[in-house]
Design goal:
This protein is mainly beta. It has three helices and 17 strands. 26% of the residues are buried.
Length: 241
């Protein structure tokens, strides 16, 4: 009788380990220089960034962006229901229901934020000045002071996307996505390399957000082996949400 009990416990444990071992990694690279020059760069005084201006001698440099700050690379569950249940990728200092962002250097890090519905957004102020972050149209994220070295938390229950503004620092901006079908948010480095870890096999949609714009939307199918995607470039026809 005891032997049967042990076997009954070992079988589900073995199945769990098998399912866990089937999870794999999805990785790729974003070609960050493929975006058109930004409007802000075009407004810079002549001579300050003259390598971005036509001068007859040098090729105009493409706009470079900080992928870690400005981009959110996400996996969404396939609409047909083939993908696994949404399970956000965990990062250092986070859990499945809590995501932390920071005011740093007078701006948000990251400025494009993607979370799953039900997440608590923790806003940390690392600056020496106060901020009053708000999202027009989003109940619960009104302009309230976050003092220097202070914190604020917001519960995000409704799906949607909203611009982010700061009443005290007018140049600060960002964008917040709250997604019911979010499976994972990639880690991304300054060169554009990104990866999702521990992703179960299935069909997904990979999206790249930059502020209010969707730069990339492409299907991804993962088997039991890790997948490396072709380098991803951004077209000039990206659309706002």
């Amino acid at each position: 009788m005891k032997l049967l009990t042990v076997h009954a416990w070992l079988l589900p444990a073995a199945l769990f380990m098998l399912a866990a071992s089937a999870a794999a990694q999805i990785s790729g690279k974003l070609l960050l220089v493929s975006l058109e020059p930004s409007a802000s760069a075009a407004r810079e005084p002549a001579g300050t960034y003259n390598w971005e201006l036509e001068n007859g001698f040098k090729e105009v440099r493409a706009d470079r962006i900080d992928g870690r700050r400005e981009l959110a690379v996400v996996l969404l569950a396939d609409g047909a229901g083939d993908a696994a249940d949404p399970k956000p990728e965990l990062k250092a200092g986070q859990d499945a229901a809590r995501v932390e962002v920071a005011f740093s250097g007078g701006s948000l890090m990251p400025s494009t934020i993607a979370v799953r519905t039900g997440t608590t957004l923790m806003i940390r102020n690392d600056d020496e000045i106060a901020h009053e972050l708000y999202a027009p149209g989003l109940s619960g994220l009104s302009a309230e002071p976050t003092t220097a070295r202070g914190r604020r938390s917001v519960s995000l229950q409704a799906p949607g996307n909203w611009p982010l503004r700061d009443r005290l620092v007018p140049h600060l901006s960002g964008h917040l996505y709250v997604l019911a079908d979010l499976v994972a948010v990639a880690s991304i480095d300054g060169s554009g390399q990104f990866s999702f870890s521990d992703v179960p096999p299935g069909k997904y949609t990979l999206k790249v957000f930059r502020g209010e714009r969707v730069l990339v939307s492409t299907p991804v199918e993962l088997a039991t082996r890790s997948l490396t995607l072709d380098p991803i470039s951004f077209g000039a026809t990206s659309e706002p949400n």
